[in-house]
Amino acid sequence: MSTTASPIRVAVTGAAGQIGYALLFRIASGAMFGPDRPVILQLIEAPVEKAMKALEGVAMELDDCAFPLLKGMVLTDQPEVGFKDANWSLLVGAKPRGPGMERADLLKDNGKIFIGQGRIIDRVAADDARVAVVGNPANTNCMIAASQAKRLTPDRFTAMVRLDQNRAQTQLAKKAGVDLTAVKDIFIYGNHSPTMVSAYCNATIGGKKATEVITDHAWLKGPFFETVGKRGAAIIAARGASSAASAANALVDHVRDLMTPGAIHSVAVKSNGLYGFDPEVWAGMPVRTTTPGSYEVITGQELCDFCKERVAITNKELVEERAAVVDMLQG
Ligand code: NAD
Ligand code: LMR
Q1: Is the C-beta atom of 13 inside 6 A of ligand 2?
Q2: Tens digits of residue pLDDT in 111-146
Q3: What is the mean pLDDT of the chain?
Q4: Which of 12, 18, 115, 321 to mutate to test the pocket of ligand 1 (most atoms within 8 A of CB)?
Q5: In angstroms, rounded to a whole number, what is the distance separating the alpha carbons of residues 153 and 131?
Q6: What are phi and psi of 239, to 5 degrees?
Q7: pLDDT by residue (tens digit) across 193-222?
Q8: Which of 87, 131, 279, 308 has a CB 3.0–4.6 Å from the CB of 273, allowing a cystine?
Q9: Active site residues
């Protein structure tokens, strides 16, 4: 393929990890930035011999795919090198939880990774830099990274709740017995944790209100919320490892939709007090992409009383997570 577009530089941390292995090939194939946009992958791993060795193997496999859009790779354990001139920085590298842990249990170990990365991205990434955080607890790690930035504004830092949106969409379709594509406008509010709010009250199925198609409202308030909120733990219990392919797929969706004007999707962003969230926390909410990489929060969604109550609970958890890492925040 020959294309005149300049390559987009995509930095990925944790590139030799599980999610990395399911993600890099999709980016290189064009699934994230489209079939006409060449990419340069800037792959960052922890300064650990085993991880860097594994990364070399992943890079060999990327070479062996002969992806026409892949115009170069950087392999490094130096964040200053890896984030240099990056247009997108995908912050995946962090410890995953094991059985019996909550994502917030990772705060102390993972939070500090995002201090250094936030600072370095702010210093060396491209002027149009965008950041997507996946490493858990994603909302709070994103807040930590964003707080380090002086040049890049908070809106450049987003965290992923798209996996939760995708999970919720599938559960609604299965319950209604319809094709997945019939389910629209299911958005995730709040934390990427069991307190997340899968706001079924504004979803539609086949053009009708989801609450009219699924008349079992006890299911919506109970098993539906529970299944989506605890899906990560169910996968860990079944697989013995946290979700990887579906997480990578959700990240492809997250970035692709943020690069597609008009796309409406769930993203965790600085709340600025919208929907009753504390203004300083990063909370999932529906956004509309305006220009590639930029978005506006959709503010007109009226939530039902049940979802409003749940928003208060997930907000409380985000505020508590913030209090637990307040010493890691700048500014
Ligand atoms: P993994 O252990 O397979 O891979 C993580 C990789 O990150 C490892 O290769 C490790 O060496 C690397 N790493 C650690 N510290 C680093 C650093 N400072 N810089 C660069 N690389 C570093 O884990 P995984 O399954 O790929 O999951 C990664 C993270 O994503 C976990 O925190 C997990 O909980 C999270 N996750 C989030 C979602 C979501 O929806 N937000 C979904 C799934 C997983
Ligand atoms: C998920 O939702 O699958 C991930 O966040 C992994 C986890 O710890 O649940």
Answers
A1: no
A2: 999 999 999 999 999 999 999 999 999 999 999 999
A3: 96
A4: 18
A5: 11
A6: -95, -20
A7: 999 999 999 999 999 999 999 999 999 999
A8: 279
A9: 192
pTM over 0.85: yes
Give the three-state DSSP class for 125. coil
Strands in the chain per DSSP E: 8-13, 39-44, 70-76, 88-91, 130-133, 157-159, 183-184, 187-189, 197-199, 204-205, 208-209, 264-270, 282-289, 295-297
- pLDDT band (50, 70, 90) for residue 1: very low
Direct distance between the N- and C-terminal alpha carbons of the chain, in angstroms, rounded to an integer: 46
Q: Per the structure block, which two tokens stand in for 129? A: 């830099």
Residue type at 172 in one-letter notation: L
* Cα–Cα distance, 133 to 137 (Å, whole number): 9
Ligand nearest to C-alpha 43: 1
- Tell me which ligand sits closest to the C-alpha of residue 161: 1
Pocket test for ligand 2, best of 242, 246, 249, 251 (most atoms within 8 A of CB): 242
What domains sit in the chain, N to C, each tagged with a CATH number?
8-159 (3.40.50.720), 162-326 (3.90.110.10)
